[in-house]
Design brief:
mainly alpha, 0% strand
Length: 175
């Protein structure tokens, strides 16, 4: 019996592992920063100011975690298509799958990290690194993050839509 491997399933699993490593590194940086600046409780400050820009730190982090899971679940779909149904991802489906993996990883990562960074900048936490103390909350700084975040979300959406179309085309193929 010939063992069939899912190329695209493997690519998405690798992407999920890399994205999981990135979010782990970010978590370690936050913990490391908290250890270095022990007189300042960054997490307490952010949680107490959840009404302002700080909420974007949490929302961006949660969306990033959801992104990692979504990429891994996408691998399961591609595995089913390639291994269980024995469908080939070729031609236009292959192009759409590439757009899917790139759009999902670039768009998803870019949008969530901009949300986190924008929340840190708007809440004044970034001043801890330059001045050693919390800065003032600046809601206006959030305006500069709207267009780039929206652009990354558009890349994410294009990637996911193309992936869905490519998946359906490969599923319907009679290979």
């Amino acid at each position: 019996m010939e063992v069939t491997k899912g190329k695209w399933a493997n690519r998405f699993i690798i992407a999920a592992i890399i994205q999981g490593g990135i979010i782990t590194a970010i978590a370690l940086m936050i913990v490391g920063t908290q250890i270095i600046f022990m007189q300042i409780n960054i997490m307490q400050f952010l949680s107490l100011s959840f009404e302002g820009p700080a909420k974007w730190v949490f929302i961006g982090t949660i969306f990033y975690l959801i992104l990692v899971v979504a990429i891994a679940v996408t691998a399961v779909f591609y595995n089913h298509l390639e291994v269980n149904l024995n469908r080939k991802i070729a031609g236009i489906s292959k192009v759409l799958a590439w757009i899917h993996i790139i759009g999902m990883n670039v768009g998803g990562t870019g949008s969530t990290l901009l949300m986190v960074f924008g929340g840190l900048a708007g809440s004044g936490v970034l001043s801890v690194f330059s001045e050693g103390q919390f800065g003032k909350e600046n809601i206006a700084i959030m305006d500069s993050f709207i267009a780039p975040t929206a652009s990354f979300i558009a890349i994410l959406a294009i990637g996911v839509i193309c992936g869905g179309i490519g998946y359906i085309l490969a599923y319907k193929s009679k290979d």
